[in-house]
Design goal:
13% of the residues lie in helices and 33% in strands. Strands 1, 3, 4, 6, 10, 11, 12, 14, 15 and 16 form a ten-stranded antiparallel beta sheet that branches. Strands 2, 5, 7, 8, 9 and 13 form a six-stranded antiparallel beta sheet that branches. It is globular and about 50 Å long.
């Protein structure tokens, strides 16, 4: 009886880890996408979305997939539905939407971009002077196209980019976080490196740790604009995506998300910007 119980428990754990991985729900409208991000102390308004509707949507099962965020919204440079599933099924998942790139993203790399997906909205704080956010960046460009096609993510607050490698002023892109550069924040999931199954039950060939953004020295009641942008760089092939945790945009820091020390804060006009990344335990990494 005891052996049977142990066997059943092992089967349940295995099933829950690999059978219930990432689930994608299709994009409906910009307001719902933006409002799903809002947490305590944040008011969101005037949401707009630019890009292919198929490029974005909602995800769940992120913890089983291994990305460190359970649920939220996803913006991609291809098709969000390509992320549906329980494993890495291809080394080259790709959807070309034939849509435009984004000039602000071009300037970050620099490289011409295509298939941009952009969610923009206004926000204000009801109290306090600091807002917090959490996200993960991933891509099929890893690992083969590091140094060639530099897909990029931008997190713009009043036109200033907050999507930076922790403790630096370096934008989050393929070339700037990978197995060779800022590798402490990178999770390799490439079929070419591991075969089947890959370490994570997740379609993309690589992704970052969960990164946290701290937007400091805000004025309660004042209105600020956020634009979340991702795009292909140099071509329209091989999807990249960025995952935002539901309700993580708030005036309350995550206790697991360290607030940066003053020495790592970045000056933004009259305010301070902090970016911190927290690392999940990579038990499956080498």
């Amino acid at each position: 009886m005891k052996k049977l119980l142990i066997l059943m428990t092992a089967m349940v754990l295995l099933f829950s880890t690999h059978a219930f991985a990432m689930t994608i729900t299709a994009y409906d409208n910009a307001n719902n996408l933006a409002q799903s991000l809002g947490g305590p102390g944040i008011t969101i308004s005037n949401a707009t979305y630019t890009g292919a509707a198929a490029a974005s949507g909602y995800f769940s099962g992120g913890m089983a997939a291994g990305i460190g965020i359970e649920s939220g919204i996803v913006l991609t440079s291809g098709a969000a539905s390509n992320l549906q599933g329980t494993s890495n099924t291809s080394d080259s998942i790709s959807t070309s939407n034939g849509t435009a790139g984004d000039a602000q993203l071009d300037a970050l790399i620099p490289q011409s971009t295509n298939d941009a997906a952009v969610l923009a909205f206004d926000f204000s704080l009801t109290t306090g002077d600091t807002a917090y956010f959490k996200y993960v960046f991933g891509s099929e460009e890893y690992n083969e196209y590091v140094g060639s096609f530099n897909d990029v993510f931008g997190f713009f607050v009043d036109n200033v980019n907050y999507a930076l490698i922790p403790g630096t002023t370096t934008p989050v892109s393929i070339d700037n976080v990978n197995n060779g550069v800022n590798s402490a924040y990178y999770n390799d999931n490439d079929l070419g490196d591991f075969g089947t199954p890959t370490p994570y039950a997740f379609e993309y060939d690589g992704f970052t740790d969960v990164f946290g953004v701290t937007i400091a020295n805000l004025t309660p009641g004042a209105t600020y604009n956020i634009a979340l942008k991702i795009a292909d760089a140099g071509d329209s092939s091989l999807d990249s995506g960025v995952f935002f945790e539901a309700s993580s945009f708030s005036d309350t820091p995550d206790p697991q998300q360290p607030i940066p020390e003053p020495a790592t804060m970045l000056l933004l006009g009259s305010g301070l910007v902090g970016l911190a990344g927290f690392r999940r335990k990579k038990n499956l990494k080498k």
